[in-house]
Amino acid sequence: MESLFILIPIAIVLVAVAVAVFIWAVKSEQFDDLERQGYSILMDDEPENDKSEKSEPEKRNDV
User: Fold this and answer.
1) Residue 22 and residue 40: Cα distance in Å, rounded?
2) CA 48, CA 51: separation in Å to the nearest integer?
3) With CB atoms 3.0 to 4.6 Å apart as the test, which of 19, 25, 35, 60 could cross-link to 30 if both were Cys?
4) Distances (CA, A) of 19 to 9, 29, 34, 50, 55
5) For residue 5, what are the contacts with CB-CB under 8 A and spacing of at least 6?
6) What SS3 state is found at 25?
7) Could you read off the pLDDT of 3-15 as tens digits, one per residue?
8) How distant, in Å, are the alpha carbons of 19, 29, 35, 54, 61 from that of 40?
9) Nearby residues of 31 by Cβ (< 8 Å), 6 or more positions away
10) Contact 14, 20 (CB under 8 A)
């Protein structure tokens, strides 16, 4: 029973710190762009010029 007198205030302080960190993250705009990182793995990093060269078939000059 005596340990509850120590554990309950510690738990309240930890919850208060977690809430403060969450409020700080929201105010500093940490959650504004959540979708950009998800789309970055779907997009190719190749320039458009490289794509057009690959799509053309190779021409042979056999005589």
Assistant:
1) 26
2) 5
3) 25
4) 15, 16, 20, 49, 54
5) none
6) helix
7) 999 999 999 999 9
8) 30, 20, 9, 23, 41
9) 25
10) no
CA distance 39 to 26: 22
- What sign does the dihedral 34-37-42-46 (CA atoms) show? positive
Could you state, in order of their start, the residue ranges of all structural domains in the chain? Answer: 1-41
pTM of the predicted structure, to 2 decimals: 0.51
Residue 38 has a pLDDT of 76
Return the beta strands (E) in the chain as ranges. none
